User: What shape does this take?
Amino acid sequence: MDGDSAADAVSLVRLRPDGRCGAVLVVRTQDRTLTHAFPTTSGAPGVPLLNGLASLAPVRPLQIVLTTWLGASTEFARVFAVRAGRIAELAAPTSDGTFPYEGSVTHFNAIDCVHGRPGMIVASGWFERGSSGPSYGFERHFYRVGAHRFELVRSRSGKTRIALPETKVFREFREPQPFPSCMRVRAAS
Assistant: This one.
């Protein structure tokens, strides 16, 4: 996690829900313990949730992936890294700073590393368009994993009659989400 090649431990400690702090992300390195507090989230028990450790940029240590809030059917992830002796978020250029994943009958979201393109991720959405027949749309946003943030490289959108994304073409929709191909350690449920 901190890049010194020694084994580190990552955990998420839940605190009493009636306090100002709902959970603390803890990274124990060889010579120190780092923490990052998350406020209590009303109406969303069990959030934040530690998803695991992902290899988003091959020349850097693993990144920490957390689900920081839940919608009715969609979950929203944030990415953190140990940098300069502290836990720092890699800022996502989305309106709320998260990447959506999963979904329901009318939409699906996914996020993964781009196959064959180290240091690149793709965040995609698949959705029903209107109610006059089977028409679906998709959006794909490709990001470069920077030292401090995700940088948008390009976006692509289109329409289709296919009701569900084909995982052979849109590999990012494979399970388990998020980051099915580059998650190196999945947290125990």
Q: What stands out?
A: The mean pLDDT is 88. Residues 53 and 64 are 5 Å apart (CA to CA). The chain has no helices and 13 strands.
